[in-house]
Amino acid sequence: MLDQSYYQMTDEIIGRYGKAPASLIPILQDIQEEYRYLPGELLTYVAGEIGVKEAKAYSVATFYENFSFEQKGKYVIKVCDGTACHVRKSAPVLEALLKELGLSKKKHTTDDMLFTVETVSCLGACGLAPTLMVNEEVHPTMTPEKAIELIQELRGESR
Amino acid sequence: MGIMKIDGRKVEFTDEKNVLSVIRNAGINIPTLCYHSEVSTFGACRLCTVEDDKGRTFASCSEEPRDGMVIYTNSGKVKKYRKLIVELLLAAHCRDCTTCVRSGECTLQELARRLGVTDVRFKNTREERPIDDSSPSIIRDPNKCILCGDCVRACEELQGIGALGFTFRGTDAVVMPAFNKRIADTFCVNCGQCRVFCPTGAISIRSNIDEVWDALADPDVRVVAQVAPAVRVAVGEAFGVEKGRSVMGKIVNGLHRMGFDEVYDTTFAADMTVMEESAEFLERIEKGGPLPLLTSCCPAWVKYVTDQRKEFIPNVSTCRSPQGMMSAAVKEYYRDPQKAAGKKTIMVSIMPCTAKKMEAKRSNSFTKGEQDTDIVITTTELIRMIKNFGLDFSALMPESSDIPFGFGSGGGVLFGVTGGVTEAVLRRLIPEHDKTALDEIAESGVRGDDAVKELTIPYKGMDVKICVVNGLANAARIMDKVKAGEAEYHLIEVMACRRGCIMGGGQPTHAGPRTKAARAHGIYNADNVAIIKKPDENPLLNSLYETLMKGKEHELLHNEFY
Questions:
Q1: Are A58 and B162 a contacting pair at CB < 8 A?
Q2: How far apart are CA B271 and CA B427, in angstroms?
């Protein structure tokens, strides 16, 4: 059960766009921005409020890679594995991150809810390959060593 | 309006909404998997692809007819294209055809044969997914799904329920309820229209045939059948009988031959429903409410109200459905130890409907805490039983149903079509019973397969306003209007399936426009040949009211919805 405050927040977000089926995606985006993920209960709630069937709303939310029903860490690390990054050895960077954080291809988020590691297909910064993003910030020309340093830095920051 | 050339022949068209319809009207049965005229055009399967004179190929379902078009429906290019589509679909499809419940009635299987797909060159790379058998009515096997979306559109557009949706995308796409919930945990009303629309075995009827065979094999059990009105006009389709012809007599004989001890006609119980419901209706008018009275014979509709429109629960008639009334009456009859003669009675209900399987299990429909209807099988399952037993249907001689529950009026038979309940209730309410009076009711606007029919009937100095609606999405719109005060009725008859029970989720599939019309016609014909038209003039019913049912009407024939 989600806290009542989640529903109040959702009501406020719905208010921004209006109770219409066409408001679905912007509402879901704002919810995700607020909580860094899309709580399933809120998807059901929004669907009911704006007059969309739950299955339809779920269909939209799962169609877009961007929506996540899983709670994410404070730092979301997106490792680029596009062609340019891949040939310039992004795989070892990813490996190093996963090993350092005790994550795997199936487990994306650390238990302390600090880090989430994902791969993306291209960040559009091929000249800086291999690259990754931490939340909204781009980190260029990564190496496994630099990646681990970065993690340590972020850990320190959050203390 | 215009003329196009199809395979070298000139074809006129008028208001057809797409090229596909023009081609089909010209006598070419172009294959489709995702096209149904009753739901929106989807254009996903691409099997209806045709070629024009410029060598351009397009899906004919999604193209508007234009004057001067030149179309080739079977050029080498489109033939090759269609065959490849089916081959690719089969590649990602469970291919255990011999053991599939849909074998022989599967559109994909038929198309593979028709288009000459004899080999599938591709490996199936799809992960095996678990089967959802949580529903008492349907079984969902995602391994047989071809993602045509027919069930999704039927559920959302026709029924307004939207229990199913496309989820994820690309090679990960699956049709399933939100959050991969079990069907039983959604607002699914068990109507089975998804199964009617599904071209493969991905959604099928939950079969209860084995339970019936077990009961028939048990010497200590009296197996009693009841057969609903809509069943008799559809069974014949599977045995080459003229479409829409009532084969009730053959069904009765067949059931006796398979070992049923007694075969009763649900029409009898429909007459009871008319008696109870019209009494309730008059009482509510006298007491001033709650109105409008909502009919309760359709379990899918009742589930929709109790799930999603709770504010209207007091409006739902307390009458049990004909299935429920029949089973309660039969079970009461055999509560007398002398009549029971040491045997246990098992009530098998044969219905056009998948939702009846759910209704039978609904605890508020029980009598004395016992489930009255033990097993529900659909028309489709009855056909399978007849085939399984090896009965030569054409050689079956018609027999009459058994007494005391085997005789129904013409009004009772009408329950199989939309408007039928209303028409039967109107017959009950008027004192006359001559042909002119009955014709007047028939012509009052109650007949026909329109989704919504409104009629005003003068009765004892007041204007009785009635709404007859079929298709749950249409019913939802009517209830919205009633709630908003934009419409006022005394009685609303709802059947969840379009056209009523004749198009129920348990009926044989692949019913085109002619079959639909023939089934309705068959119901009206059965009424035409009935000697007694008015439910209140059913002599067997009246004698039962005096004996078996006396003082027990409420216990046996009503229930509360909460």
A1: no
A2: 11
Q: Which residues pair with A118 in a beta bridge?
A: A78
Nearest-angstrom CA–CA distance, A80 and A78: 6
By C-alpha distance, which of B490, B435, B434, B482 is closest to B459? B490
Q: How far away is chain B from the Cα of A57, in angstroms, using its nearest Cα?
A: 8
Helix axes B209-217, B379-389, angle to 10 degrees: 50
What does the block give as tokens for B330? 């039969």
Residue B144 has pLDDT above 80, yes or no: yes
B161 part of contact set with chain A, CB < 8 Å: yes
Assess B106–A contact: CB distance below 8 Å, yes or no. Answer: no
For residue B316, give both structure tokens: 């739902």
The CATH code that applies to domain B123-205 is 3.30.70.20
Fold classification of B2-74 (topology level): Ubiquitin-like (UB roll) (3.10.20)
ipTM over 0.95: no
Hey, which bits of B46-130 come out as E strands?
49-52, 57-59, 70-72
CB A77 within 8 A of CB A133: yes
Quick check: B177 contacting A, CB < 8 Å? yes
| Kind and range of the H or E run holding B78 | helix B76-91
Q: How far apart are CA B402 and CA B407, in angstroms?
A: 8
pLDDT in tens, B365-390: 899 999 999 999 999 999 999 999 99
Span A75-158 CATH architecture: 3-Layer(aba) Sandwich (3.40)
| Domain edges within chain A | 4-63, 75-158
Interface of A to B at Cβ within 8 Å reads: 40, 43-44, 53-59, 62-63
The token pair that represents B436 in the structure block: 């002119």
3-state helix, strand, coil in chain B (%, to 5): 45, 15, 40
Contacts of B164 in chain A (CB under 8 A): 55
What is the predicted pLDDT for the residue at A159? 66
Which residues of chain B are within 8 Å of residue A55 when distances are taken between CB atoms? 152, 156, 162-165, 177-178, 186
- B165 in reach of chain A (CB within 8 A): yes
